[in-house]
Amino acid sequence: MTENELTIFLISDGTGETADQMIKAALVQYMRTGLKIIRYKNIRTEIQVRSIFEEAHAIKAIIVYTVVSETLRKFIDVTSQQTGVSIVDLLGPLLEKLSVHLKRDPQSQPGLFHQVNENYFKRIEAIEFTVKHDDGKYADSLDRADIVLVGLSRTSKTPLSIFLSYKGWKVANVPLVKDIIPPIELFQTDQRKVVALVIDPETLVKIRRERLVKMGENPGGDYASLNHVIAEIEFCKELYRKNRRWPIFDITGKALEETASEVERVIKSAMPEKWGHIN
Predict the structure, then answer these.
(1) Which of 80, 110, 140 is where one domain is finished?
(2) Are residues 143 and 255 in the same domain?
(3) H-type helices in 28-166, by residue range?
(4) DSSP code of 222?
(5) Which one, of 265, 154, 258, lies nearest residue 200 by Cα?
(6) Are residues 148 and 101 in the same domain?
(7) Under a CB-based contact definition with an 8 Å cutoff, are residues 9 and 51 in contact?
(8) CA-based Rg of the chain, rounded to a whole angstrom?
(9) CATH number of the domain that 100 lies in?
C-alpha cells in the first residue's frame, strides 16, 4: 500500500447508508487521493465480523461501524485488540449517552432507521397521489389507488381522503352528480377498493348552506335545497344498489377518524392478499 492509499471498511447491521454519508462528510476535510470505501451491509454475526477483520488486517484497512447490538459491538472491540485493526464506533457512544439521559435501553433492532425513513417517503408519496386525484381528477389512473371514495358534493370525500393518505393510503375520490354517469374507469378498477359515502339529507343541506354563506354566495338555490338533495341521495343509492360490492358508509354525525378506521378495516378485509398483514 502506498502512502496515499487508504481503505476503509464500513460495517453496518443495516444498509450502512448513514455511516457512508458520515464518512464521506469527514473525508472532504482531507486533501488526498487513493481513498477507498468498502461497505458491508447486514452484518449481524461474529463469524461475519471475524472474516471482515481478517481481510482488513491483511490490507491494513481501518474499520468504521454502526452496529446497534451491544454484544456485537463488544466483539468488534475485542477483535480489534486481537488483530490490531483500528476501529471507529460511530453509533455506540451515542447510544450509551442516550440510554443514560433517557433512562432506558435501546431496542437494539437493526434497520429501524431505514424502516422509519422508508415509511416516511411512502406517506409522502400517498399524500401526493391523493392530492393529485382529488375531486375526480386523473380518473384514468384510478387503478393505482389503494382506496377510491365516491359520494356527493360535501360528503367529506376530500378531508377523508387526505386523512387516509397521512396514514399511507393512496386515495382517489370521485364526485357523483345526479343524472351524470361516473367515469368508466370507476367500474373498470378493482371494485373491492371502492367505498361509497352517504349522509342524512338535512345534514347535507345544512353543510352546503354554510359552505355557500362562507363563500359569499346565495344559499337559496337547488344546490342546498332539501328536495334537490333528497333527489341526489336517491340517485346515489340507486347507483350503489347496482354496484353491490361497494361498502356504504353513512358519515352523518361521525368523526373523520371513526370513518377512516372503518374504511381501513373494510378495505383490509376485502383485500386480505394485499392488506391482511397490516395492523
Answers:
(1) 110
(2) yes
(3) 46-59, 70-83, 92-102, 112-132, 157-165
(4) G
(5) 154
(6) no
(7) no
(8) 29
(9) 3.40.50.2300
Domain count of the chain? 2
pTM of the predicted structure, to 2 decimals: 0.62
| Domain shared by 18 and 156, yes or no | no
If asked whether residues 166 and 83 sit together in one domain, one would say no
Question: What is the residue range of 89's domain?
Answer: 6-110
Report the C-alpha dihedral over residues 220, 223, 227, 232, rounded to 10 degrees. Answer: 180
Cell of 135: 375531486
Residue among 48, 35, 42 nearest 16 (CA): 42
At 198-231, the pLDDT tens digits run: 999 999 999 999 999 988 888 888 999 999 999 9
pLDDT tens-place string over residues 85-115: 999 999 878 877 777 777 766 555 555 555 5
Provide the grid cell at 38: 468498502
Beta bridge partners of 269: none
Q: Which amino acid would we find at residue 242?
A: K
> Are residue 189 and residue 57 in the same domain, yes or no?
no
Q: What is the rounded CA–CA span in Å between residue 6 and residue 23?
A: 13
Ramachandran quadrant class, 253 (left: phi over 0; alpha: psi -120 to 50; beta: rest): left
C-alpha cell at 150: 365516491
CA distance 89 to 73: 8
Whether 1 is covered by a domain: the verdict is no
CA-based end-to-end distance of the chain: 54
Relative orientation angle of helices 112-132 and 157-165, to the nearest 10 degrees? 160
